[in-house]
Automatic annotation (TrEMBL), chain A:
Superkingdom of source: Bacteria
The species this protein was found in: Paractinoplanes aksuensis
Source species taxonomy: Bacteria, Bacillati, Actinomycetota, Actinomycetes, Micromonosporales
Regions that span the bilayer: 37-63, 98-119, 131-154, 184-206, 246-269, 289-311
InterPro entries the UniProt entry points to: MetI-like, MetI-like_sf
Domain ABC transmembrane type-1: 94-310
Keyword match Thylakoid: no
Ranges where the record places region Disordered: 1-25
Assigned protein family: Belongs to the binding-protein-dependent transport system permease family.
Bilayer topology: Multi-pass membrane protein
DNA-binding listed as a keyword: no
Protein location: Cell membrane
SUPFAM superfamilies documented for this protein: MetI-like (SSF161098)
Protein name per the record: Sugar ABC transporter permease
Alphabetical keyword list: Cell membrane, Membrane, Transmembrane, Transmembrane helix, Transport
From TrEMBL, chain B:
Cell compartment(s), UniProt: Cell membrane
Primary residence: membrane
Protein name per Swiss-Prot or TrEMBL: Carbohydrate ABC transporter permease
Gene3D superfamilies xref list: MetI-like
Native source species: Paractinoplanes aksuensis
Family: Belongs to the binding-protein-dependent transport system permease family.
Length: 317, 291
């Protein structure tokens, strides 16, 4: 036997003994598995505290009475829900919210698409394009509190909106846009349309720029008119963006509170009462926290239905 | 632009007139759009330079005789109004710093580790974005009062993070995923652990992504209204959006001051947007479509 080959044998023998030592690496592999949870721990604590606990709390409030303000809360069953769901103000709030979010969404989409297509026109130079883009994005840069104040100024009975419309001969006498139950809902909807379309515009502009030029060239070869190109190339290509933007917009607009609260406070005569303002008033004006919780849970369920459609749409893409 | 062949001169002419017509129509549409988008903002600006008596003068004028900065001086020399700005800066800066810190750690876990329940945890974080604020504000009131945080900065900072943290985690995870893993592996070869790899390598090269997320976080917190309204009580704890509303009640409609305050309150967001416009829009659209 020569020593030379023995050495590698010994070395090889020494390798397996290091295997039991591998319990060291094994222990550290348990530790290693815990590493990501270490990084996640602040997030897990915060999400638990800011979402999971509050949702459990609001659901439990909704089945009880005398919550938050008094200590002697008692089980109330579905009483809060029956009271809220049969409240005519709540039903009015559902109807108003439905009108508010659908009209806003359709207008956001039409305006956003129109502006995006104009900005995407090959007839425009780059400087003109970016100039107009900045102007069109403007409404989106102001916080909702500012937007509410701007539109209260413009829509004041002696404000500039009435002056312009009278000068153009569109109305005969000044309208009290926010004070008249017949026009208030349309006025807050208009303000919301103004403030929200830029987000559609930006997303649709990105979508338009992503459509391959060959599709249009092929359509031109087939002799398609601009309208047919729009219907058969542009719209189908934008469809996924349009649908996800539309659902997101319904969710966001349904959560709008500040605009309504500062423009009309839900009035006059509940004509602009939304689910958000109705719930807020129950809680923080009337201190009916249990009933407000029942209303808040209904809002959560309605939002989850919309979110479900959104997620399903995202999966299909 | 295109050279017109002699034989095709006639169709070339009609094409040119058609082009001119289309361009006219386009600029007409663009002009209408610019009035729709810009006129209300212009009117806000113009009103802030008027005296309060001229706000509703008939016929309305864009620039009046008593054009002045009085409304701005009135706001900027009033301690109560300045306090709103101070509060908004304190809350928004703290929210941004904490969101980035917690967001970086979480995004690092999602981007660089495989671990059980990662998909579930991620789904919960994404779903936070859909929970209506009005549903949360009621239990938050109970929680914040219970924790002794009612009418305090920590109460606002903590609750604002429910909006900012999910977005930050989603965006930063996507950003980290674009950076090659070999970068942080090299630190581990040199004996460093994952912690040093994160702070020495990943974070320094992620500065552009961190800025975009930070800007967005700042804007959300600066603009937040519902929690600031419900979770604070005294005027010295109110933020700018609530301050604008308070101005509406207190001074029996000092419209010029309300507009000046609105413009002053919008300046931080406007500056951030203009500076980071490109990065911000790109991040936001991709985030919205992904989230």
């Amino acid at each position: 036997m020569t020593t030379a080959p023995a050495d590698p044998m010994i070395k090889q023998d020494r390798v397996p003994p290091s295997e039991p030592v591998a319990s060291g690496p094994k222990r550290s592999s348990v530790a290693r598995r815990l590493i990501p949870f270490g990084y996640l721990s602040p997030t897990i604590v915060l999400i638990t505290l800011l979402m999971i606990v509050p949702i459990v709390m609001v659901i439990s409030y909704s089945f009880r009475d005398n919550v938050i303000v008094q200590d002697n809360s008692v089980f109330a069953g579905l009483a809060n829900y029956t009271e809220v769901l049969t409240d005519p103000d709540f039903l009015a709030a559902i109807k108003n919210t439905g009108i508010f979010i659908t009209v806003s969404m359709v207008a956001h989409l039409l305006l956003g698409l129109g502006f995006a297509m104009m900005l995407n026109s090959p007839l425009l130079g780059n400087v003109t394009k970016s100039l107009f883009r900045v102007v069109y994005v403007l409404p989106w840069l102001f916080t909702i509190a500012v937007i509410a104040v701007i539109w209260r100024l413009l829509l004041d009975p002696s404000g500039v909106a009435n002056y312009v419309l009278q000068t153009l001969g569109l109305i005969n006498e000044g309208v009290n846009w926010l004070g008249d139950p017949g026009t208030a809902l349309w006025s807050v909807t208009f303000a919301n349309i103004w403030s929200g379309y830029p987000f559609f515009m930006i997303s649709l502009l990105a979508g338009l720029q992503g459509i391959p030029g060959e599709l249009y060239e092929a359509a031109s070869v087939d002799g398609a008119s601009p309208w047919r190109k729009f219907v058969h190339v542009t719209l189908p290509q934008l469809r996924p963006v349009i649908i996800s933007m539309a659902v997101l917009d319904l969710i966001w607009t349904s959560q709008q509170f500040a605009l309504i609260w500062m423009m009309t406070g839900g009035g006059p005569l509940n004509s602009t009462e939304m689910l958000s303002t109705f719930t807020y008033k129950l809680a923080f004006s009337e201190y009916e926290f249990a009933m407000a919780s029942a209303s808040a849970v209904v809002v959560l369920l309605l939002t989850m239905i919309l979110a479900f459609f959104y997620v399903r749409q995202q999966r299909e893409r | 632009m295109a050279t017109v062949l002699p034989g095709k001169a006639a169709p070339g002419m009609t094409q040119r007139t058609r082009r001119i017509l289309m361009k006219t129509a386009l600029f007409f549409g663009l002009g209408l759009g610019a009035i729709f988008a810009g006129a209300p903002v212009l009117w806000m600006l113009s009103t802030s330079f008027k005296s309060n008596g001229e706000v509703f003068q008939n016929p309305p004028k864009l620039i009046t005789e008593s054009f002045s900065l009085d409304a701005y001086t009135a706001i900027l020399t009033n301690g109560a109004q300045l306090r709103f700005f101070l509060n908004s800066y304190i809350v928004a800066i703290a929210v941004t710093a904490l969101t980035l810190l917690v967001g970086i750690l979480a995004a690092y876990a999602f981007s660089r580790f495989t671990f059980p329940f990662s998909r579930t945890i991620n789904a919960v974080i994404v779903s936070v974005q859909a929970v209506p604020p009005i549903t949360l504000v009621i239990p938050y009131f109970g929680l914040v009062v219970g924790l002794g945080l009612y009418n305090t900065y920590p109460g606002l900072i903590l609750t604002h993070m429910v909006f900012t943290l999910p977005y930050a985690i989603i965006m930063l995870t996507a950003y980290f995923n674009t950076l090659p893993k070999e970068l942080d592996e090299s630190v581990k070869v040199d004996g460093g652990n994952s912690w040093t790899a994160l702070w020495r390598i990943l974070v320094p090269i992620s500065v552009p992504g961190l800025i975009a997320v930070g800007v967005y976080t700042f804007m959300i917190s600066w603009n937040e209204y519902l929690f600031a309204l419900a979770l604070t009580r005294t005027d010295d704890m109110r933020t700018v959006p609530i301050g604008i509303q308070l101005l509406m009640g207190q001074h029996s409609y000092e419209w010029n001051q309300m507009m000046a305050m609105s413009i002053l309150g919008s300046i931080p967001v406007l500056i951030l947007f203009l500076v980071f416009q490109r990065r911000f829009i790109g991040g936001l659209t991709s985030g919205a479509v992904k989230a």
